[in-house]
Amino acid sequence: MLTVFSFLVAISILIAVHEWGHYRAAVACGVPVLRFSIGFGRPLLRWRNRAGTEFVVSALPLGGYVRMLDEREGPVAAQQRHLAFNARPLHQRAFIVAAGPAANLLLAAALYAFIAWWGTPQPQPVLAVPAADTLAQRAGIRGGEWVQAAAIDDHPEAVRSFDELRWRISRAVLDGRDLRLWLADGPEAPALRTVELPLSQLGSRELDTATFERIGIVAPWSAPVLGDVLPDGAAAAAGLQPGDRVLAVDGEAVPDAQTLRARIRSAVDAQGRARAQVWRIERGQQTLELTVTPQAQRQGEAWVGRVGAMIGEAPAMTVVSSGPLAAVGEGVARTAEVAGLTLQMMGRMLVGEASLRNLSGPLTIADYAGRSASLGAMAFLSFLALVSVSLGVLNLLPLPVLDGGHLMYYLWEAVAGRPLPEVWMDRLQRGGVAILVALMSLALFNDLARLLG
Predict the structure, then answer these.
(1) Quick one: 226-306 is in which CATH superfamily?
(2) GO: which molecular function terms (predicted)?
């Protein structure tokens, strides 16, 4: 229920803001707006303002529209023809069309700025012990280091949390560039050394779990302590309990939770056969040795081990916040970065450099809406900002039936000195609908594939 409610709230807000952008721009240009509609189906609310605009909220908030006075959509009185949308100057029509996506981008910037000013608890940027033969391990990272700054070029940026570190890594991976890290023993300690992560050597620009595992930076440092233990899992069968601290596995020390996860995963061979492990644990004042046989589980094309328990204590947290003016700058900068990365990912999918599996649809969006809402208001606002950027960028694509497609028509009109012929506009609209349906079908297929494992 939370997932459905959060999804409907998010979609309703984003659509309302998008259409409000069109509406306010039309009013500013003197174009009468006949109807402002949020949703489809049976109207739940209906009212008119002094200008005569009918506002409608319908039962299915999965879309919306602003209907303006336009000779192409219905008869217009002779005394009002000069006010019709199709009769307005080119720059006004372009402004009205672009105002919708612009409103989504402004909403994202405002949300990111508010989050930066309010502050959010995030994991401290302390590195876990990297797995063997990963980029981090080969670069000399041992685990326990505090990342003070990171740089893709020669201008280091301060790293205040592990989330910010992941963001820097993501940007470097998508750009195919190396990343330099400044490491220290603590937040106030002087930087002891720098390491270079040769991310350009990955040979892939996919931002998935496998990529971060190859890099060796998956999660922040946390102690190898067990959390919740499932009653039907391998951990419970071995006699493990919440709060047990794992000291060693098969005689090898376990310095942190990430190392323990790697040992569990590697307990299953390529054929799905699991081998027993001897865990030395600390329980209160006791030191015990227990035999644990992880359960084999399919993950993509490989088999991995699972024990049915939460691995690792909650990492140490820090509150990341900024002053009002700095927060506004961060909001604008984050919106620009996310928009740029979104366009970059779309371009790479278009030329085949990135998998089309990265395309997500309504089911994935709904899933993340519910997850973010369950984590609190700030997490939900961050999710809302991310989707708002995506919606703004998507609508600016030069695809017929989208706002960007109409802007493309206006560009033709500005260059050629005349509107695009109706016959060509009709053909492009039909083609745009076909492309949009194909993309939506692919996104829905990806959603179902994720949900079905």
Answers:
(1) PDZ domain (2.30.42.10)
(2) metal ion binding; metalloendopeptidase activity
